[in-house]
Structure prediction request, 472 residues.
Amino acid sequence: MRLLCRIKPLCFSMLAVIAPCLASAEPRPEHMVYLRAIDPGIEQDIRYASAHNFTGHPLDGYEAAECLLSLDAAKALARVQTALRTQGYGLKVFDCYRPSRAVADMGRFATQPGDPRKAEFYPRVDKQDFWRLGYVARVSNHSKGGTVDLTLTGPEALPAQTWSPSAVQVDCAAPYVQRWHDGAVDMGTGFDCFDERAHTDSSTINATARANRQRLGNAMQKEGFSGYSKEWWHFTYTGNDALKNVMDFPITPQALDTSNQLIVVTTKNWTDVQGTAQRYKRQGKTFQKYGAPFPVVVGKSGLAWGKGLGVVDQREGPVKREGDGKAPAGLFKLGTAFGYDSTADTRLPYLPLTSTTECVDDSHSKRYNELVDGSTIARDWNSSEHMRRDDDMYRQGIVIEHNTPASADAGSCIFFHIWRAPTSPTLGCTAMDPADIARLFSWLDPRQSPLLVQLPEAEYEHFRERWNLPQR
Prediction:
């Protein structure tokens, strides 16, 4: 019998240096907001939350790939996006608020041996010259909440590539079609390119890139942002003189701020197939246990870093690959409930399964990672999971939004569902006793923004304080 949950692979500025003097976490000030909450249409590729930056590692303080800005700067940026949309263009941000601990991390890198990403980001520069050449400053405006690094998207942009540590390094100042495809139009160089061609008014770039820089610069200037001569991507909001204080609070996932229901699943290690789940309910600013813990099983090969909210760049441990039999680790929203019965005792959106209900796992399909009625939709897929099974394992289930919206080959059809047996793992889902999933059905409330945190125990402890997660 075919096992469950076939998983596709996860193909997963001004710079500054100050002393690492702020070690403890600060609370997020009220005037600092998530850009997604102001304008979710602005694309984000937060490079310092990943290893795809000039240091070759995620920077200290970037616990989630999220853009935070002061409220007025975020609103001004949303106005820029609106104006550009009328011209067929848009924005993609690479960095926004930067904790001062991350600035210190940059400083340490610039003074220590090793150049893991030199070939891409600074092939013609010695990193000891970062300060002299103006690519590094002693204090970063990014840490004050009004500075953003960004680029321009548009109809002539090449599709964005999915970065992995094995990606071949290409000179950031190479011709547009050769260098890393970040989903932007030709801006003359890539982001964080320490090269004279990245200077805003460089005369060595082509006419198309100069026009794109001018378009971006004019749109930003109209809403109160000033540029920086050494970096075409770097802009600081000038409409609020009060943005003077350097901050050091860590960047954490947005969803945890608004969630009132939490399910925590932990395993002993990356390869363990059995785990424990615990429900939590928010009480004020903290989460309190709700009900008793219960056993679960995960993928037959354990866990691996998956695509969740505010994608966490893996510190250590495996990364999901094609056919690896691993369940995704990270932070995830919970979506539609489904089952064999026509109705269910749940406040979640509910989908009764029929003989034609399928979950599409063909990454070439426009319906990839969607539950569809195969009898009413034009088929463009060659592979899918038929949801109305001959056993009870999908009699009750809940979608884990592991890859929503879907990116090709990033994983599909991940659910909570009924286990085959207490020791029988899945190929990527999280399964449990029928009584336990029935309790989740009746308890979960979409108005409470429920979330799943699924991690090995050591990783959970690493992120617990940074994300303000409850003690297990």
